[in-house]
């Protein structure tokens, strides 16, 4: 008897495992106690499974309670992502875990400092593009600029790629900061 998934009756339990397991990009926020070793434990959950962290930002956000917010961007299958979230929730210093991608309705922004060296036409073009991207000049000399650009990661990427032929020297990025829309907090 051929047990091809296409031939199984619609009431079969085999369809429960026929979910798409393609890797997806997700933004997770984790509220943790601000104490030594917590970040290493959180990051260890990802590295133990061989998953890369595309972006990582951490800062104390609740000073009176000594809590920090970790924002992690990673690419994983839904099954692995569910395991990671469950294991994060089990860590003692973790208070809350949110998958902003799955919950939807999140605002994501990134900041980058972009150093561009150039003279003449390249200098003029760099300033023109910076204006179009609403990038701020935060340092200038007769030979270079440092621009501050904020926005979605795709906007930051596009700005950097346009600066490359104009004399891109160096880029520093903060990583993603994300928050849900609406009146409710984490």
From TrEMBL:
It is an enzyme of class 2 (transferase). Dimer of large and small chains. It catalyses: 2 pyruvate + H(+) = (2S)-2-acetolactate + CO2. The keyword Disulfide bond does not apply. NCBIfam families: acolac_sm, PRK11895.1. Pathway: Amino-acid biosynthesis; L-valine biosynthesis; L-valine from pyruvate: step 1/4; Amino-acid biosynthesis; L-isoleucine biosynthesis; L-isoleucine from 2-oxobutanoate: step 1/4. This is Acetolactate synthase small subunit. InterPro entries: Acetalactate_synth_ssu, Acetolactate_synth/TF_NikR_C, Acetolactate_synth_ssu_C, ACT-like_dom_sf, ACT_dom, AHAS_ACT, AHAS_small-like_ACT. The keyword Transferase applies. Its EC number is 2.2.1.6. It holds the Pfam family ACT_AHAS_ss. GO terms for biological process: isoleucine biosynthetic process; L-valine biosynthetic process. It comes from the Bacteria. GO terms for cellular component: cytosol. PROSITE patterns: ACT. One of its GO terms (molecular function) is acetolactate synthase regulator activity. Keywords: Amino-acid biosynthesis, Branched-chain amino acid biosynthesis, Transferase.
